[in-house]
Design goal:
5-stranded antiparallel β-sheet, about 15% helix
């Protein structure tokens, strides 16, 4: 396993986040519901400073309720798009979070809306490649945990964890290379949705193969 700097990170782009979108300013008074009629527990958070991480979001919004997942959306260069999503354990916490709209966080006023889930047919389809994007990883995962995750999965040649260049901390996602597309497809079926440290992994094909980090690489062995 190796680490990749923030300059060669999430090639998966916006798909690194959950399948949500903001519902617009009308969301301030209209609460979206899912197909079962349940009130949304997910909010869109915009106008984020570029170096805000998923962990930062979880800590900030943990002040109003229990955060189950948090995501920052990155472009194909691994740079923050300036927005993300936070899902709470209950809708009441999301309502309280809406009151944080306009409050300053890392020097910028937050833009907060309710989020609604994007239907599957609206999502981009990714062409299978030999590289997988692994998202929603727990920040406390160690090298050993990651190696254990890939133990028993054949034909892995390299696994790279994205590291924040400023803090030196993991950014919550990684990329894995395989010898061929069928091997990557098999691994995707095994890993996608797998729960690790109480977080379900989001796995998909990487849009294109990232540049290797200049800070060295591993031998790719996951034995």
């Amino acid at each position: 396993m190796s680490s990749a700097s923030s300059e060669a990170t999430d090639q998966h782009g916006a798909e690194s986040g959950p399948a949500f979108e903001g519902v617009g300013q009308e969301a301030q008074s209209t609460v979206p519901r899912n197909e079962g009629g349940e009130v949304s527990s997910t909010i869109y958070v915009g106008n984020l400073f570029f170096n805000v991480t998923e962990k930062d979001l979880a800590e900030e919004f943990g002040k109003v309720g229990v955060v189950t997942t948090s995501s920052v959306i990155y472009d194909t260069r691994g740079l923050s798009k300036g927005f993300g999503f936070v899902t709470f354990s209950d809708p009441d916490a999301a309502r309280r979070a809406m009151d944080m709209h306009g409050q300053y966080f890392e020097g910028r006023p937050l833009s907060i809306q309710y989020a609604r889930r994007v239907r599957d047919e609206q999502r981009d389809e990714f062409v299978p490649t030999q590289t997988l994007f692994i998202g929603n990883m727990a920040f406390e995962m160690t090298d050993k945990d990651l190696n254990d995750l890939f133990r028993g999965i054949p034909n892995v040649t390299d696994v790279r964890v994205a590291i924040d260049r400023r803090t030196g901390q993991p950014r919550g996602f990684a990329h894995a290379d395989f010898t061929d597309i069928p091997s990557a497809t098999s691994a995707l079926q095994i890993l996608n949705g797998k729960e690790v440290f109480n977080r379900k992994l989001r796995v998909n094909y990487s849009v294109f193969k990232e540049k290797p980090s200049a800070a060295g690489s591993s031998d790719g062995s996951q034995a």
